[in-house]
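Here is one chain, start to finish.
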Amino acid sequence: MSPRELLIGAFHAAVDAVRAEALLPPHLPAPVRGRNIVVAAGKAAADMAACVETHWPLAASLEGLAITRHGHGVPTVRIEVMEAGHPLPDAAGVTAAERLLKLVASAGPEDQVIALLSGGGSSLLSLPCSAGVLAGSFVKSEEPAGYRRVGASSSRRYKGSAATGTCSAGIPAGNAGGTPAYNAPTLADLRATTAALLASGAPIADINCVRKHLSRTLGGRLAQVCKAPVTALLLSDVAGDDPAVIASGPFSPDPTTHADALAVLRRWKVDAPDAVRRHLQHGIAGEIGETPKPGDPCFSRVKTRVIGNGHTLLEGAAIHLAEAGIRPIILGDTCAGEAREVAQVFAALAREIRHHNSPWVPPLVLLSGGETSVTVQGRGAAAATRNFCSPWPWRWMACPALTHWPPTATASTARKTTRAPCSPRTPWRAPPNSA
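Its structure:
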C-alpha cells in the first residue's frame, strides 16, 4: 500500500467515525406525547435529521427543520431541510433561521425540542438583529412597555414613548420626543463583518463572540425563547468542545459580552461597518439586552451533550492505520495557531523521526486535529489545509539519501473545509518529493 493510499484510507475512516449514523442514535431521547420537534443547523444538519427519522418510532409525532449548507441537503420525510449560505450568511439563511426561531418559540412545556448542532451552524443560523424588525415580528409574544410596532416600510426603525428600554429584537427605543432609533445591523453588515473576521486570522471563539452579539438566535437566544425541554446534541468542530462556541451556542449560556465583541474587532483590526460598531456600543451602554449568561433560568430546561469531536475523528483514523500495520500516534485535537507555523513544527518533528528515530521509530503516522487559522495578506485566500501542506514548510524534507520507506507524506483535511472564502477546497495534498 502506498503512503497516498494509506492516508486517504485513514481519511475516509475518520469521516466514517463521525457520521451521524455512527454517533447519534444512542443519544436520542424517548418521544413525548406532545410535539417532538427537531431543529438542526450545520453542515451535518441534514444527515443528522435523516438519522433521527430513521431511528424514530413511526407511531410517535415528529416534525422539524434542518438548515444546512448549499449542496449538503439529503432527502427527508418528516423534517424539512433548507439550504443556506456558508461561511457567509445569505438571504436564504435569514429566511430559514427566522422559521427555525418561530418553531422553537412555538414549543410548549408538554413538547420537547431536539437540537442537532454541527460545524457551520453559526453562519447558517445568523439571523441579524434587523431581520425581525423588517418582518414586523418580535422574538417574544409580548412587546415591552414603552414600545409600539412600526411597519416594515419604516426601514427597521422603532419609536419609543417616554420610557426607554430594549425591544425583544434588541433595538433601543428613541427618546421621549419620538426620535427614530438607530438602524440595526443588516445581513449585508453581518456578511461584511464575518468576511473580515475570517480573513483576519482570528480564532473561532473570537469570531463567534462577535456573531453572537449580532444575532437573534445565537449565544443562548434559542434557549431564551423556548418553553419546552431541550436535548442539544452537538458534533464539535472546535478545539476544546465548548458548547458556547460550537455553532455559536444557540442553546448554551454565553459568557461573553458586547464589550468583548467590540474588543475582538479592535484586537484583530477588523474594519466593521458603522452599524455593527454602533450596535455593540449600544450594548455596552446597556441600551441593548445581553445574551443570556450562565445561571440564567432558561438553561434549566436544556441538556447538552457533545456526541462527537475531533478526537473521535482521530480515533477512527487510528483504527484504520493500526489494522494496516502502521503505528498511529495521536498528538491531540487542540492544535491552534497560524497554519504555516504549525506546519513548521510538524515538519521538524517528522524530520526528527526520520533522521534519528526519535521520539518514535517509524513506520508510523502522526495524527492531530484542532483549529488552525490563516491571516490573509492582500488578495490571498484563507485555506488552512493548503497553507499547512504548502511546499515551503516541508521543502527540506526532500533528502536524496532518504528514499527508502518510510517516506514523509502529508494528508491534511479540515473539519471546516469552507471556513473562509477561498478557491475550491483541497482535502489532499502531499509535499513535493514525498514519495
